[in-house]
Amino acid sequence: MERRTVLRAAVLGAGTATFAGALWQQAFAAVAQPGPSPYGNLLPVDANGVELPAGFTSRIIARSSRIVPGTGHLWHPAPDGGACFPTADGWIYVSNSEVPLVGGASAVRFRADGSIASAYRILSNTNLNCAGGATPWGTWLSCEETPLGVVYETWPDGSREAEERSRMGRFKHEAAACDPDRRAVYLTEDEGDGCFYRFLPDIWGDLRNGRLQVLCAPADQVAGPVTWADIPDRDGIPTATRKQVGAAKRFAGGEGCWYDRGVCYFTTKGDGRVWAYDAVNQRLDLAYDDSLVPPGTATLTNVDNITGTRSGDLYVAEDGGNMEINIITPSGVVAPFLRLPGQSESEITGPAFSPDGRRLYFSSQRGPGGNIAGSDGITYEVTGPFRP
């Protein structure tokens, strides 16, 4: 019997732990399963090529290699991870650029009525900026997805130059999520045998100094207690950070990362899983696994970027697959929320909600043409009756 079949039987039979976070507020019998969406079925494609539920509309706010409408700014290629930040008169959406050497990140500033006020660069001349994460103090952590990549702290309003945060480790960074309760920043690593890290700054709000730790657990553990160990050499030379602690647990290609009220959710694309780290009780568990659903029913595959809402819903983007963003509800139902047909050579990146929760932003990194350089990327906005 294949290992993942054994795991399926074990997990479905044994159940999982109770989490303190919004998504898993009660004990659940199994990982999330396909079911009816709270928004209903997807309708045929709209004028922008997006399949959405009834009541939702889309618009394109930017295209790679073209001027952002109403501004003089040329939108970057290969848009990737993103986040939204409130302003006094609207909000800002920040987006990374996953291209070599000149990657960086850009921002679009919106007025209170949703119209575009400006667009501009906030980070330049960095390497393969993939995902990242927002901080509670209003900055964007842009992560380099290279073997000795670093994290850059940026200011979405462009008021300060970006600053390198090398004390957060040099490795193939993917995403970051801040835990203000334990004053930690969780970090994923996009390697086939990558690790899950946390950075504990000496002073919360100042990421210039602190301790870098790696999560430790048995190699085959999918549910149970974990520990943390310090990384001896965060520079990763000559030994990569993920190879410095023998007890470190390996993950098959870490991707998106999202913290919500006691739980940090992160995805691993190599095995189609959404993990849940219970930071209160220091336990690890599975929230979703595409092999732990009835054969032929998995609607969520190729898991990648992840975000969440105040209601406790998770939104998980797909890298390829059938180009969907799927919702995972607090009751453990997985269902498609939107789809981009005809863009199978691309991936969905950067899902993030506006501060009022009424608009969802995301990108198709390579667009319908699938250009590997990302020159056909498209950044979208979806508006509608999202659950409060």
TrEMBL record:
UniProt keyword terms in alphabetical order: Signal
Signal peptide from the UniProt entry: 1-29
Stretches that traverse the bilayer: none
Pfam families in alphabetical order: PhoX
PROSITE patterns: TAT (PS51318)
Superkingdom per UniProt: Bacteria
The keyword Endoplasmic reticulum belongs to this UniProt entry's keyword annotation: no
PANTHER family associated with the record: MEMBRANE PROTEIN (PTHR35399:SF4), SLR8030 PROTEIN (PTHR35399)
Stated name of the protein: WD40-like Beta Propeller Repeat
UniProt organism field: Micromonospora pallida
